[in-house]
Design a protein that fits this description.
It is a single chain. This protein has two domains: about 120 residues, Aspartate Aminotransferase, domain 1, CATH 3.90.1150; about 220 residues, Aspartate Aminotransferase, domain 2 (3-Layer(aba) Sandwich), CATH 3.40.640. The chain is about 40% helix and about 15% strand. The protein is built from 13 helices and 13 strands. The chain has a seven-stranded mixed sheet with strand order 2-8-7-6-5-3-4, with helices on both faces. The protein has a four-stranded antiparallel sheet with strand order 9-10-13-12. Helix 3 packs antiparallel against helix 10 and helix 11 runs parallel beside helix 13. The longest helix has 24 residues. The protein starts with 7 loop residues before the first helix and ends with a helix. Bound molecules: pyridoxal-5'-phosphate. Pyridoxal-5'-phosphate binds next to helix 5.
């Protein structure tokens, strides 16, 4: 028996359980043709080849330095900001934790919504900060209730826009009005991991509010549209003063050079990006039609996944689809016990999912 005294806040944390991998399912069930439609990865795979990355792998004995790559300039140019307004992280997950490190402590409070990405609560727990998870209204953020939840100790409001797992976005005017009334000493973290998939004209990136509201912080990722989830690279865009604080807590070599170069190369894969976006639209329409024909309620999405309600538990759906070699996300941990989240796949994958879902429903 040890007598170590771990931090109290850490004791309440349950380790993150990632979605099942294709390899795990192949091994467990002995099925060869397994597809993963669970973690909102790019169904076309990784756009960067091993040959393109070979020179950087050969330089793998040197410590990385993202500022020696064109990435800062490229990302700053894309968003029309200065390089001092950008910082990279080992996935946007790391940036969320860095935000926790600069804003949160046992004396502070943070706010996020029910039915959202689990990382916000995780960051609060690691930092020992108190937090409020504000109930949604018809699955959407209740921004009024979020405003009411602000108190003197509140330091951060985390909002995924579009949200995971609902795929809903906060419309431009609503976001603008919200930012007008949030006290300027509260950071509004807009997690835009799925922003590139948005088709609604009603969307505005938080970056467009930065000048008026320097308390806005935007996070983005290369894991979704750009197909680089395994490389772990994302970035934050914010006011220079905020980025300067994030650099203080950043691990010196947090982003590896191969990931940084993969991101540089991925930004240039215009045909891949176009194909991904077109496929997402096509897949979305196909899956909507399947759900409608099957009488299933779903939430129209602005991302690369769809949240669909079922007449039985998400757990049962997950397990049954798994037996057919299809991995989806059971949304029980998001407090949506009768729902699953399906990542929009390639045409053949969507069709396979559609057929499997129909057979599941007919079995009752
Ligand atoms: C809303 C949201 N934010 C952030 C992330 C994490 O992305 P990254 O791979 O950049 O850490 C995810 C991943 O699923 C997500 O859904």
């Amino acid at each position: 028996m040890h007598r170590l005294k771990f931090r109290k806040s850490v004791q309440s944390i349950k380790p993150y359980i990632p979605g099942k991998s294709i390899e795990e399912v192949v091994k467990e069930l002995g099925i060869q043709d397994v597809i993963k439609m669970a973690s909102n990865e790019n169904p076309f795979g990784c756009p960067v080849s091993a040959e393109e990355l070979a020179p950087y792998i050969q330089r793998g004995s040197y410590y990385p330095n993202v500022s020696t790559t064109p990435l800062y300039t490229q990302v700053a140019d894309i968003h029309g900001v200065s390089e001092k307004q950008v910082v990279f992280g080992n996935g946007s997950d790391e940036l969320l934790m860095m935000l926790g490190q600069v804003f949160l402590s046992p004396e502070t409070h943070a706010i996020f919504s029910q039915h959202t990405f689990s990382e916000y609560e995780f960051v609060c727990r690691v930092m020992g900060s108190s937090f409020t998870s504000v109930p949604t209204r018809d699955h959407a953020y209740d921004l009024q209730a979020i405003l009411y939840a602000i108190r003197a100790e509140t330091r951060v409001i985390f909002l995924a826009n579009p949200n995971n797992p609902t795929g809903l976005l906060v419309p431009r005017q609503t976001l603008s009005a919200f930012l007008e009334v949030v006290p300027d000493w509260v950071a509004v973290v807009l997690d835009e991991a799925y922003a590139e998939f948005v088709t609604s004209h009603d969307f505005a990136t938080g970056i467009s509010f930065l000048e008026k509201h320097p308390n806005v912080i935007v996070t983005r990722t290369f894991s979704k549209l750009y197909g680089l989830a395994a490389f772990r690279i994302g970035y934050a865009v914010a006011a220079e003063a905020v980025i300067a604080q994030l650099h203080k807590v950043r691990q010196p070599f947090n982003v590896n050079q191969i990931a940084a170069m993969a991101a540089v190369l991925a930004l240039d894969k215009k045909a891949f990006i176009q194909r991904t976006l077109e496929n997402n639209e096509m897949g979305k329409r196909y899956l909507y039609s399947i759900f409608e024909k099957s009488g299933l309620d779903y939430i129209p999405t602005e991302a690369n996944f769809i949240c669909v309600q079922l007449p039985f538990s998400g757990k049962l759906a997950f397990e049954s689809l798994l037996k057919l070699g299809i991995i989806v996300r059971n949304l029980a941990s998001f407090e949506l016990p009768n729902a699953i989240r399906i990542t929009i796949g390639l045409t053949a994958q969507n069709e396979r999912l559609g057929t499997a879902l129909k057979s599941l429903l007919s079995r009752g």
